[in-house]
Amino acid sequence: MVVKLYGFRISTATRRVAQILHEKRVPFEFIDLDRATSQQKSPEHLARQPFGQVPVLDDDGFIIYESRAISRYIATKWADRGDALIPLSNIQAIALFEQAASVEVSNFDPYATRAVFQKVFKPKRGWGETDVAIFEEAVKALHPKLDVYEELTLVDLFHLPFGSELPETGVDFFTGRPNFTRWFKDITSRPSWIAVKDGVESKPSYD
């Protein structure tokens, strides 16, 4: 049975999961829920996700939600495909992976989300004026977080949905950060990201 991914085509979290499916060359059917009619709040979807949110993965009846949890599941179940994105045996490597995961969710994502929402999403989607104070506070908090990026793991790919939008804010996050610049170029040029950056589509098979 082909894995099913429920979500919104351009949702950041849905694209996060779809990218990992591409990384691991896992064929999947994408079910694009209709946000305009709040299909994510339908009884059918609430049976899959009790909070009425996306994304949700259905792997032959096994249901899992929360994009980072889904991504860990994919990277672990199909560990033998593609790059090794998650350590599975060395306890110290696992600990460092979880440390990096905590840094991403606590020290990168909140600030990148606020900066991109204020400077990119609001004007593009007609959601009102940019709150300059919130934007500048997020950028100030984000700057010192960008000096620690080196090699690729699943956590690095977690950064992409919002991280890839940072140049659109008009702020120079790259000057004086050769490691971050290299890291950013590497992750944003991966075929898996290119496949989903403009929206998720079903991938029924791989050659």
From TrEMBL:
Give the protein name, as stated in the record: glutathione transferase
Task: State the top-level EC class.
Answer: transferase
This protein's superkingdom?
Eukaryota
From the broadest rank down, the organism's phylogenetic lineage runs: Eukaryota, Fungi, Dikarya, Basidiomycota, Agaricomycotina
Question: Does the entry feature the keyword Transferase, yes or no?
Answer: yes
Can you list the GO cellular component terms from the UniProt entry? cytoplasm
Q: Which keywords does this chain's UniProt record carry?
A: Transferase
Q: What positions does the domain GST N-terminal occupy?
A: 1-82
Kindly list the biological process annotations in GO that this record carries: glutathione metabolic process
SUPFAM superfamilies the record matches: GST C-terminal domain-like, Thioredoxin-like
Q: Which CDD domains does the record cross-reference, listed alphabetically?
A: GST_N_Phi
Query: Which residue numbers delimit the GST C-terminal domain?
Result: 90-206
Q: InterPro entries, per this entry? A: Glutathione-S-Trfase_C-like (IPR010987), Glutathione-S-Trfase_C_sf (IPR036282), Glutathione_S-Trfase (IPR040079), Glutathione_S-Trfase_N (IPR004045), Thioredoxin-like_sf (IPR036249)
Q: What is its EC number?
A: 2.5.1.18
Could you cite one Gene Ontology molecular function of this protein? glutathione binding
Q: Which Pfam families match?
A: GST_N
Is-annotated flag, keyword ATP-binding?
A: no
